[in-house]
Fold these 3 entries.
Entry 1:
Amino acid sequence: MKNLPALRISRRLPSACALLCLTAFICLPTFAQEEHHHDQAPPAAAAKPASDDTDYNKLPPLPADAHTDQTTVVDGKTLHYTVTVGTLPVRDEQGKVAGDLVYTAYTMDEPNRPVTFAVNGGPGAASVFLNFGAIGPKHLNGVGNADDSASDPTVLSDNQGTWLGFTDLVFLDPIGTGFSRSLVAPDEAKKLFFGPTSDVDYLSHAIYDWLIKSGRITSRKYMVGESYGGYRVPRIVYELQSQLGVAMNGEVLVSPYMNPAVDSQPDLSPLPWLLTLPSITAAHLEREHQLTPEAMQAVIAYTLGDYATAIIKGNSDPALQQAMIAKVTEMTGLDPTFVKESGGRLDTEAYLREVWREQGKVGSVYDSNVTMFDPFPWSPWPKANDPLLASMIGPTTTAMVNFVTQVVGWKTDAQYNTLSYAVNEAWDRNSPATREGSVSQLRQTIAADPKFRVVIAHGWDDLSCPFMGSILTVNQMPVMGDPTRVSVHEFPGGHMFYTREPSRIAFQKIVEDMYSKH
């Protein structure tokens, strides 16, 4: 399928300031750049599964911090930078080291550089997706788009959408992801690391510790988070601002999961159906080569108008229901019988199979135009892994492991967890913090600092964290000074829209403009 030119809509808050997904990257890449290593340590033994009587604090130590000097060429300009792979100790309430957090930092030897901290989501995803996919100086080619093959050679190239030209970058891998690890027993680790409140607490302290360790406490400071990272970031920034005394300048939320309330109660509320219809329509428009900002503005207007009214009225107005079903059929290109039997309310899993059923394929929840053959086509429910994740994990993991151990020279044979299903399964989803989301913290941060800025970015064709969720959330926020301080933007692509270079570069320019305001 032909990629469209990069498109975007900048939605300035008319009223003021403006969900849960797993994402990451992995196989061995080819590197053409020169390498220069120093501060290397001998290889450390991999952390082996331990029995209940194991002293987890006696695991073999991870290597000392390692550095390498590299270059990347962006828009004809050569950037010279240092890559550091290092660790930060994570301590419990008694000050005892309970975990090792591993980070990858890209820094340039220039004065007055801002620094940006990056986290992915899951919970259970390492930061490699943002690193090699979106904003780091190198980009992993051939991953995340239609027809990409997981078995193709992995190659890193200069990232024309990197943010390194205007900010240093620090990618944090939460405990249990990447090479980061717990040093305490599983029950204690669950309490210290695998819940929304403890997660925010130790990651906030890790950022503080890196700033002190690196002598950067007076630098301008930003955060970026993707997916569940979009839940983390507003809460971490608020924690840093209100509890640790670290003033942040702004945050960027990529395909964020930040407001679980917008997709609740599908039997009573129109919100769940308002979230999915625009993204499903965008996917159809893209297949027809008709996806434009103007077309999507009309889709959004219909969704917030006649469609919402029809959903709310339900069977009390049969004529309105019939007209809505006809309109949804036209917008989505789906089989009329399927739309009619769905009542115009398009369930995500049902749609992902229905739209590609004749080809014997199934679409990805992260981008329904990324498909694979359905290995269980006669099953009443989907049984296979998501097509996009199934194609990404191998090349992403391999690329990161090779980069860290061979290019940077941080020698370890420990397992690298791009996506940790163990962390995801251990996560405390019953916490009130999970149900509350992070919109409250976002509002309070914006209210407390009149110069604080936020960019929220989505791909049109994302059904895991649909862009309408952010639009609806932002539209309900009060006016707090300059309404341009928070903006929502949409691009061609899905959850990881940045795998498409035109979208990635357009996104970079928006963020650079935001940084230039400080």
Note: The two ends are 40 Å apart (CA to CA).
Entry 2:
Amino acid sequence: MAGRIRVGIDVGGTFTHAVAINSEAMKLVGRVKVPTTHRAAEGVALGIIEALKKLLSEANIAPEDVGFIAHSTTQATNALLEGDVASVGIISMGAGLNAGIASGVSKLGKIELAPDKYLTTYHEFINSGKPITREMVTSAVDRLVKQGAKAIAVSEAFAVDDSKNEEFVVGIVREMNLPATAGHEVSQLYGYKVRTRTAVINASMLPKMIESADMTESSVRDAGITAPVMIMRSDGGVMDIAAMRKRPILTMLSGPAAGVAAAMMFLRISDGIFLEVGGTSTDISAISNGRAKIKSAEIGGHRVYMRTLDVRTVGVAGGSLPRVKDGKLFDIGPRSAHIAGLHYSSFEEPIPNATVKLIKPMADDPDDYVMIQDATGERKQCVTPTCASNLLNLVPEDNCAKGNLASVQSAMAALAAHVNSQPSEAATDMLRLAAKKCIPVVQALIKDHKLDPDLVNLIGGGGGAAAIVPFVAQEMNLRFQIAEHADVISAIGVGLALIRETIERQVVNPTDDDILRIRQEAHASVEKMGADPASIEVHIEIDTRTSVVRATACGATSMTKDSEVKQASNSEERKVLVAESMRVTAEQVKLDFDGKFFQVYSSDKVESRLMGLFKHHLRCVRVLDQAGGIRLQFRNAAFRDCTVDAADRTIGSLIEEFSEWGDAGKVIPDMVLLAGAKIIDLSGLLDSTQVLALARAEMESMPRDAQVVAIARLN
């Protein structure tokens, strides 16, 4: 088992979970939890270390068995929310006519991070129109430090075109043993003020994040583990510690990102809405064709050059408390059992002759939250969506949320009596109130990311998933599933996440060479961090409005190739799975391509339009991997298989046949290739020459007679 164990550690608000995964069988072989150490002198790093030691001991894992270790962290997010960051000195630079403008826009003053939480900055300007000397830099740094700066951000106008001045200055600052960030290190996009702001916020996190990273890495090495230590990013991938030391800002929101990574890597969800349900809140995000949906980040209402998962949080979850006014249930949450210091009735012994008392969970809260107590007021519990779901038999038998039905019945009877209802009606009302907070967010994600509602499933993760997801799915008439090991799904996601990097450049009318150069830079970045070159996939996006070319590379370490997953199902089970996904019978499903790594299934459908006056013929397509998981779903698509030698002609003919003409000219279909073990996403490109150039680059190392499937997504 040497080197075959992947360790994932997820730092949550209350607990830090650690899991061990056998990468060959993709099975959980160990799991532990310890309290998250927010207030320890070592910060959350102490909890990470404690969880790791406990996991190795209890699961009997030898250090040499660990081939991969990664953790998420709340440190960056908490630092911003609490204003617990270092003050930053800004060294801005500019030359010629840009000097005055650069000096003015880089004076950022106090940056709001969260309500009433600010980052203090100080400012020095160096005119880069003449040679910059070491003395000029050290003098500027000394002045900033005297004012109170604990870290330095270096930013020059147009450094994305030539970064040598930023590199020179930041090198001197680091020689002075001060944490420092250069603007070109955090972004290669134009927009001097936004790039400077991003560099400043990144620099403010450096002292504590580097200290925490050093402590974690040292403890891992002391434990005898030689595997590289990775940190979860906010976009669902991981990066090595060297990358984190330069850009800790990328770890923001890494907790919610971990759950989505698990949905894609462990559950193998290709299209769906992922709801990670905790005790107090639910994080909701979208996945389409195996990719998590991403958005640009904001901090304190200000745009920064950073990409994060589009995670939307609602204040309702498995432990939310119901609220009563005028003898009626009218709301649930945002306060939870955890905040009120109460235990769920689901996990307690029944209270005889229980009654309701309305309370204030916190001093400034209204006194309309429900608590259950006995006649003496000594025994206290609460009813929550978890309790309601248990009463309505919505919690699976083997789920962590399965509770003591007798206790739930006693508590729910007390609530029902208080609101003049029946227990089952009160439970349904509670879940309906909770669902009403989640449903608009699910609908908005489907709309904003143009997801096909027919392909969307709800996937529940987190310990409270069974309390929320089944009822939301029932209300929306959607299919759902509760994740295996839902309560530690985020830790699993951390352990299985791919190494990831995104390279962005602003290029007006990019040529094929421009696109290939940016692609290669992204490919090289993840390879440098330890990704197996054979596993690396690069997705290119071109934003014509902003002239941004974005290359996102993902790759696995050599121990996590898909070929090692031993979960293949038989042909009949696959057909049934595909039929259920397409909402047709198994007899209507055809196996069109049966390759070494992928199978392609299809089914023909007829869709009525305009009150039945017109018929639209569709070809539904599903792509399954060798483990029997659906990797791609298409409501309507055309595809052809060929060899690498014939790929240019095949791709070109599909594009020509299915391109459409409109006011904007020729619009090509989104293209996807199945090439060897890779899924090559060529969607979002502007013309066939770009598609063909990238396809050639992706397939250049493949045998010329290797099989390829080209798929065109149709309307």
Note: Residues 563-713 form one domain.
Entry 3:
Amino acid sequence: MKQGLSLRVSQHLALTPQLQQSIRLLQLSTLELSSEVDQMLDDNPFLERNAEEAERESFGLEQLDTPVSTSDREAESATYSAADYPDSTRAKAENDVEDSGVTSDDGPSWEGDGSVSLGPDDSEWGSEAPAKGNNLTGDDEMDATELARNQESLQSYLHRQALALRLSAEDSAALRFLIESLNDDGYLEDDLTELARGLAGDDDEEQLAQLVHHFTVALNLLQSLEPIGVGARGLAECLTLQLKALLVLSDTELELDPEVIEVALAICRQPMDLLARRDIKHLIPLCGAGDTAIRAAITLIGRLEPKPGRRFVDVERNVVVPDVLVVKVGNGATAKFQVRLNPEVMPRLRVHDIYANALKGHKAGGSEASSALALQQRLQEARWFIKNIQQRFDTILRVSTAIVERQKSFFVHGELAMRPLVLREIADELGLHESTISRVTTAKYMATPYGTFELKYFFGSGLGTESGGNASSTAVRALIKQFVAAESPKKPLSDNQISDMLKEQGIECARRTVAKYREGLRIAPASLRKEL
């Protein structure tokens, strides 16, 4: 075989470190972005938080709202296609914005900051990284975690009650151990013997028996604390503890029939699936009670709390901090909706002026040249990080504004007026790739007059109507919820009946589709919604 050399000229799109970082930051949620910023602040000495609001960096991002040319749209589409499919990064691009030889396999290179020329100093990077068009003032600040600051945990509440008990050191320690072993619902999932074996081991049987004894005493004490039902090993025991507490109070404080409570206790001694199915036919012989008593007992059980620790669950974990705020301006037909970014989620970052100026004025030579080059790359990395954060928030704001414009009927009339919308429509309108819209709408939230929703909530497929148009699946779900809310408790609507009611509204929706939407709304079947 004859060997030889040949030259070949070709064009390909390279995923540079800057582009990879931009894509990654775009798909991060608010919490993930905060962690990313903290990590970058720890790693990069040229990056610092800026407590004061400074002028926005002036170049590069002001072109975001200009019309997108066909060639730029093709280049952007090829870019994000390459990000989604790494094996097909080679693509023809007439107007490459990056014409360097760096590929995703090479070492990171942060040379250049994307601008035509740099200012005389780095003060231009002293920006809080707001997106263009953000006109929020200090009066509009929102602290979504304010609700969770004074939240007391279940463990703290139980420990505080335990202080009033006169216990030996061993029983007190056992009670504290069991309290800390509870799950978020207030259940003790682990067996007492297994808990004791984890402390004593398998060899010392005498110590194991002592620990089991102390845990048994502590469990009885734990189950006597508030909320009633805490420390149960299962749903049946949890309901039983609450029913026994009601039985004690029924003669004095509550107007409850003790016989109904006794029947409810008998039901809790049966398999829980019978109660879940409301299988009255099988419960009557098992509990030795009549039809009326069984129905009254099931109704009583339905008023109990199956998760005693529910109200103590850390609220902060359930708080959603919106990335975008929608504010209604004006009333009536002239009402407009202003889209703003939430200042609480935007990191205020800038390049450290002292370090940057010191590096710029330092002329290194010889052995110090490599160190100076490494520091220069860290400086460029800090600049690109700020720029990519700005790009992220600008894109979120543009996409959110386009969604509000398309779904204006929702913001005026509610979810019944939601229009069908797909990612492609927003992508075509903004000149972005569909994968970019998908990244922007994932784990990003919008606070509206009707509540806080994920951006993906405003997208939905369409169902055919008699008029030849389409109805949004979100609007159909809202109709189903409305039908169920207005139904008779003694004769709830079946999926077939709901399907027929939708057809009367001009919406073609099969029974299986109704069942899928109903399950997505967490609405029980008609047999379980029926009032006994």
Note: Residues 369-406 form the longest helix (38 residues).
